[in-house]
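REQUEST FORM: STRUCTURE PREDICTION
Request ID: SP-0412
Submitted by: Lab K.M.
Chain count: 1
Length (residues): 390
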Amino acid sequence: MKKAVFKFAGTALAVAALVPFIAQSAATASPTKFKLNSVGSDVTFCASKKVDKVYKVAVKPTSANKVYDTPPYLSSNIGCESTPPTYVVKADTVHAAITYSASNLPPNGGTAGITALVNDNGAGNIAFARSTSGRSSSNPANLEFWAYGLDAVSWDHFTSNTSAPATLSAAQIAGIYNCTYTNWNQVGGGNALITRYYPVTTSSTASFFAKLFLGGSEPVSTGTCPITFVPQNDATQVASADQTTSILPYSYANYFAQTSGLYGSGGNLALGTVLGEVNGTAPSSTTIVEAAAFANISGDACTATPVTGQFCGSRYIYNVTWQKLPATYYAAVIDLIGVPSTGKAGANSYCSNKYATTLKDYGFVPLTKATTAQSTSGDPVPGSSYCRQF
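STATUS: Completed
RESULT:
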């Protein structure tokens, strides 16, 4: 304000004329009231919903922007809440009201969320997608993947399954799902048939597990090699008769949140299961590391030589958007999930490290501060942050 005043003659009249103008402009400025629809992964849903509530309060003085965290399932218990039978995203100046229901189901998982974002083609009905898998060759090149933390995926079994061994190699996991191995005694365990369960194939966990252990192709159930597909990270979906013999891929963060008491007893969807080791290492807050997650971007850390102290199934967690959105809408999304072109993350962004404690509470490992833009970024931003732009 001082510089603006000095450009006038410096008279009291100039100051008197300017101050009311500024005051009036500030008083009549209309804050944006965007209803940002976030869809996709159930792995990050509960933590994201917690973060987005904090974000809403923090930006209220300057905007009335709100994130609508659309659940991946309706009428289901997903740990932190029982989802409603319908879910409505209110209208804003960019999109009409959106109602998800039995006749218009929400995207079920990260892969489905990204597909919905792409199909919306920048119309703004989808602001960003939650995902635990990174960019695939089928994604548009200008999609922006903003990684903000780490998770891991391992195989899971019930404690009543005393035939399962403590550890499996990547080759043994692949052999289980292609039915090279059909008995636990073929992979170092006891004498019992193996019952295969797998997450729904629209989930990021399903695609990530397939990339790590199954050569990139998700399994297909056949008469000679049956597989039961269930909602991801929910052991309550395993039939009681199968619990003594089953195997099921599972997110470490979801397992941690469900078993730590964060959701209460009704939210413990892990239901008396344990996460198995891969190549002799179990996932934990100390063994889940970015080096392994980065290796899994273009390679496969679980079929490589094991690294002591690293869980090979480490992965990034992402929010995904693109600049096809209307410019002001895109800016509002980046204010939360990314870093603007200036290279400095906003105070309320995931990339500012503001939500590190929340991420830890939900079992995720926050990223350290480092160079933001990675080599796969089509529109790299400068500088460093607590996110990685892929």
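NOTES: The chain has ten helices and 17 strands.
Reviewed by: T.R.
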